[in-house]
Design goal:
five-stranded antiparallel sheet; three-stranded mixed sheet; about 140 residues; 8 strands; alpha+beta; elongated
């Protein structure tokens, strides 16, 4: 009886760990405030868009995260990808294109205005559910225009 209980507990623990995976897009950028004279409320805005090319579906329409000056990387949570990967009705295995961008919003004006960004050509193609599950969707060292 103890062996059965241990087996059931182990199965429940492993199932819980599979479903608790956090799907993220890791983004890092240059140490650059774009000559902003920060008065304490300036920030980086990091935006991620994810499209499933194989099934012609936009999965993440534009998740945006604000990051304080002095921080040059962030993991953007994208639980929608986890849900999309679990969808058994998809015609094809997902193949994602992921876009990420960073903009500097300077508090010299009220409200803060974007004064520079990393451009629009920052994309990763052919990303799979496994890439997200393994934490391998990374944008490293994005450069500002």
């Amino acid at each position: 009886m103890k062996k059965i209980l241990l087996l059931v507990a182990a199965l429940l623990f492993s199932a819980a760990s599979v479903f608790s995976q956090t799907y993220v897009v890791s983004v890092s950028w240059q140490h650059n405030e774009c000559n902003c004279l920060d008065q304490g409320n300036s920030y980086y805005a990091v935006k991620v868009v994810i499209y499933d090319d194989a099934n012609d579906v936009t999965v993440v329409t534009g998740t945006e995260v604000r990051v304080a000056f002095g921080t040059y990387s962030v993991d953007v949570s994208v639980p929608e990808v986890n849900q999309h990967c679990a969808d058994q009705t998809l015609q094809f295995p997902p193949s994602y294109t992921v876009w990420a961008g960073v903009a500097v919003f300077c508090d010299d004006t009220n409200p803060p205005e974007s004064i520079c960004n990393t451009g629009n050509n920052n994309s990763l193609t052919n990303q799979t559910c496994t890439d997200f599950a393994d934490g391998n969707v990374n944008f490293n060292g994005l450069e500002f225009n």
